[in-house]
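Hi there, hope your week has been kind to you so far. Please have a think about how the structure follows from the sequence. I've dropped the whole record in just underneath, so have a look:

_____
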Amino acid sequence: MKLGRIYKRSEKISKLQLHKRISWRTVWQIVQAFVSRQMSEKMACQSLEISRARLYVLRQKWLKVPRADQVTPQWLYQKSNSLRLSSRVCHYLEEEIRYIKTDSEYFKNHFNFAFLAQQCHQRFGKRLRRNTLRRWAIREGLYHPEQDSTSKAYVRFEMGAIGLLWQHDSSHHGWLPLTRRNDVLILTKDDHSRKVVGGLLVPRDTSWHHLCVVRESIETYGCPVAYYLDNFSIFRPKTEPQTQFSRALSTAEINLKFTAKAHPEAKGKIEKQFDYFQRRIPYLCERYRITSLKEANKILRDEIHYYNDSHIHAETGEIPNKRWNKALLEKRSFLKPIPQGVSLDIAFSLHYPRAVRGDGTISFAGKFWKVPNAPRYQKVTIALKPPTSSRRPLTEIFILHKGSTLAHFVLTKGESLQEPLN
C-alpha cells in the first residue's frame, strides 16, 4: 500500500501578457499572415509566444474584423465574455465591500476575495473564483488593486491514507476583535484528506482544553495512528516523564510525533489552516458584533462545515470530505476504535499524584477528601474532570490506585477548586 508521497511545486516564472510584450499592430499582422497561409501554425505560435488554442482565439477575432483600417487596440484587449451577477448577489457584494471600505474598524481596506466568493456560494449557491470576483470589483470601480505578491516554492510530505497522521496545534489571535483580547483556537487536521476533525475557541491555552478537542475528535472519527505536534510544553515533557496530554494519548494507544526544533515550517498544513480561519472568523465576529466565545464557536463550526464539505483545496484539488470518503471506499484508512476497557472520563481528565494521610484523607485543592479503604501513606492519583458542557455541568473527581477507582466525588453547583487547569 502506498502510504505517502512528496508534493512539490516549483516557482513559476511569470511572463508578461501578450499586449504588454508585442504591439497590437504586430499581433494583427502575424495573425493575418497565419490566416492567409503565409506563416505556419508553429511559426505563428513561436512568434507570439502563445499556445495553439490562443492562436485560434485570435484567428476568430481576426475573422470578425478582416480589414486593417477597421482594427483598433480594443481588437486585442476586448474580452469575449464578462461576469454577469444577479441583482441580489451584486447588492450583497456592494454592501460587503462598502462595509470593508468605510465601516469596519479592524478590517478597513483589507479585502479577502476568496472569502467573499465563499460567502456567495454559501448564501446564493453561486460558486465564483477569487480572481473572477476581484476582476468584477475592479471593473465596477469597487476595488483598486495594488501589486500582487509572488508565491514561494515549497516541498511538503503527505500521508497516503486517512488516520495515519493528525496535525494538532493552537493559535493565539484576536479572534473576537470587539473584545480587544487574544483568545486561542485549537485545531486538529487529518494530514491526507485535509479534513478538519476538531476545533474549539477557548480563552486560554491549557492541557484541559486540548484534551477536550482530542476526545471529541476520537469519539467522532476513531483513533489515528499518531498526532503531529510542535515542542510546546503542553505536548512534550521537559522535566516530568509525561505531560497530561501525552499520558492521555498513550492511554488511547495514539503515538506522538514531534517537529524538529527551530523548524516551524514543518507544520505548514496546520499553519495554513489557521491562516484560512484568521481571514474569516474575526471578520464575521466583528461584522455580527460577536463578543462571547459561545457565539464565536457557532461561527467556527459553520466555517469548519463549509471547509470540509465545499472548499476545494489548493494543493489536492479536492474537497476534504470527498477525499476522506474516497479513502474510506478504497480502504485507505488507519483509524481504529477506542481501546476496550479505556474510560475516557478518567483517561482524558487531569491527573495529580497525592499521598494518603494516616487518617485516610487526601489533601487536594485546599480541601481534605475522605477516601474509604485508601492505602495509608501510599501514593494515589487524583483525576480531575472539570465541567464539559451543559449536559455535564459539574466538576468530578476520581481517586485512583493501581488501576482501580477508590472514590468518586461530584461537586455541587457553586463549589470551586483552587487547583488551576494546567
Q: What stands out?
A: The longest strand covers residues 166-173. The chain has 15 helices and 13 strands. The first helix runs from residue 18 to 21. The chain has four domains: 18-77, 87-139, 161-329, 349-410.
